[in-house]
Amino acid sequence: MDQRGKTTSQVWVFADADGNPRRPEWLTTMWSKYRRAKNATATLHHLRHYFATQALEGGATLAGISSQLGHADVAITARVYSHGTAEGRRAASAAVALALEPATDETPAP
Questions:
Q1: Which end of the chain is more exposed for a tag (fewer CB within 10 A), N or C?
Q2: Could you tell me which residues come within 8 angstroms of residue 34 by beta carbon, excluding any fewer than 6 positions away?
Q3: Please, how many CA atoms are within 13 Å of residue 21, restricted to the half-sphere of its CB?
Q4: Helix or strand or coil: residue 15?
Q5: Distance, CA of 97 to CA of 38 (rounded, Å)
Q6: CA distance 54 to 17
Q7: Cα 108 to the chain's mean position, in Å?
């Protein structure tokens, strides 16, 4: 429970002073004001993708990310984020390079 006596599942990311969830259009309005004030170009949808990519890079599971994004199926999340991250692509390339290296430093005889 939090300090208001609500369970963890009842605590919202965007809540009013009483702990009640904000309406979706509240966030859209606030983000629009922020974008204008900062001359920012990122949309809420960009932030959604950024969150998912950072979570994936941070080691979160696809199932966990899928749940947080509200996807109906993990396959949706896997399809959208199958491109992976820069670090993931580097790790995959390194793994393939390692697999292609000879087992020893000796050059095999012809």
A1: C
A2: 40
A3: 8
A4: strand
A5: 44
A6: 29
A7: 46
SS3 10: helix
Whole-model pTM over 0.90:
no
**Domain residue limits, the chain:** 8-100
Q: pLDDT tens, position by position, for the chain (110 residues)? A: 555 565 555 678 888 888 899 998 999 999 999 999 999 999 999 999 999 988 988 889 999 999 999 999 999 998 888 776 777 778 878 888 888 877 655 655 55
Question: How does DSSP assign 76-93, residue by residue?
Answer: HHHHHTTT--HHHHHHHH
27: tokens are 């966030």
